[in-house]
Amino acid sequence: MAVTDHVNLNQFMEGVKKRNAYQPEFVQAVQEVAEDIFEFMEDKEEYHSAQILRRIAEPDRVVSFRVCWEDDAGNIRVQRGWRVQNNNAIGPYKGGIRFHPSVTESVLKFLAFEQTFKNALTGLPMGGGKGGSNFNPKGKSVREIMRFCQSFMTELYRHIGADIDVPAGDIGVGGREIGYMFGQYKRITNQFTGVLTGKGLEWGGSLIRTEATGYGAVYFLENMFATKDENLEGKTAVISGSGNVATHAAEKIVQLGGKVLTLSDSGGFIHDPDGIDQEKIDWVKTHKTHRRGRIEEYVEEYPNATFHAGKTPWGVACDMALPCATQNELLGDDAKTLIKNGCRAVSEGANMPTDLDGVHAFKDARILYAPGKASNAGGVAVSGLEMSQNSERRSWKEDELQQMLKDIMAGIHKRCEEYGTQEGGYIDYVKGANIAGFKKVADAMLAFGVV
Length: 451
Ligand code: NDP
Description:
- This protein folds into three domains: about 10-55, no CATH class; about 60-195, Leucine Dehydrogenase, chain A, domain 1 (Rossmann fold); about 210-370, 3-Layer(aba) Sandwich (Rossmann fold).
- It is α/β, with parallel strands linked by helices.
- Helix content is about 50%, strand content about 15%.
- The two termini are about 25 Å apart.
- The site of NADPH dihydro-nicotinamide-adenine-dinucleotide phosphate (NDP) has 24 residues, from helix 9.
- NADPH dihydro-nicotinamide-adenine-dinucleotide phosphate binds near residues 170, 171, 324 and 349.
């Protein structure tokens, strides 16, 4: 018998687990995709014989490197850096850089794997990658962050390029860090190219890039509710996180007439029964980004709100939930609680925030549930538009970009609908996103032969 992918899902996953021992996040991400893809591939011999799923689940390369830097007290510090280049079948590798103490090779491999499907779903020519370091920016001075970013880029620069691999921001990496890394890249290579996205407007950045992930996740919610002839007016939302994605998701919900009840950080969540309006969102943005404050201080500013230390917000009754902090922050029991309390829609702003039990609970309850690879693709989509603007050496206007973002999110929704609609009209967005993303990448890989 030929050695093909003609194994069942369990056999395939056993192989993935064996080859990726001690990488639970990566195995979890592959499992979630494989559950849908196996069914889709059943009668498609061309994908089996070319071992396409096996190949997509094996990164093109994983680069790991040492990052040394000097802290303000003159101590030498040593961190580990990575760039995972998962797949470039449909375009240059593209995906963010994360600085957080929880970063491991497993986390970055899962993110790069997810990114491959997400980028394909946008309809733009981008492959999948992800990078980062276990560096903890919390409590570091601005100078320390600059020195770390420069040291990180001093190794990373040889693996990236405008047509090779274009990183962006993620947890712990915002405009400031992108600036330090871009500055160092330019200094080493003497080239001003679109090698990073999320840049400042004065030096090649795109309007609405900062807002795009959060706004896009809410546009996706709108598209989901539109299938029920409903909009967001008067609906309540529970959001986790208080960073870039969470605050911009909150902003768009408020703009569309919804009411935001919660935000959180790694210390706990705040519940504001009066609703977190634009003025309060602006306060959170300044407090978390510029003052580097904690979300618990919100209750000193707005005393009607309560702070719940060490807790996640999923017990607060709502019409819709948006996990916008990090992976595996919404577990099976949380999903069941949300459903029991009347939650009708979930749009993931974060990557893989719901664990597999939670995913199954949402699917079983047949609520509107969008996985991050579909609903948070707005950020990378506008990054793709930033790359186009850099190549053309021009800038599009804000209203043009807003419209493009809306169109891209509607396009992703349509692709999910095409591959995810089940008997009785229920749309399985997880399945739809997995199949649509897989098919595009797989067909390109088939065209290249065995490479
Ligand atoms: P930020 O660094 O701006 O904010 C992250 C938020 O999540 C903070 O409130 C942070 O709290 C909280 N958080 C981080 N880790 C944990 C944890 N282990 N437990 C609880 N809370 C945690 O990041 P972003 O908003 O950019 O990213 C959030 C999510 O969205 C990530 O999953 C990211 O991969 C995803 N994403 C981001 C995109 C973007 O364009 N930025 C694009 C697509 C997806 P604290 O301050 O306490 O650390």
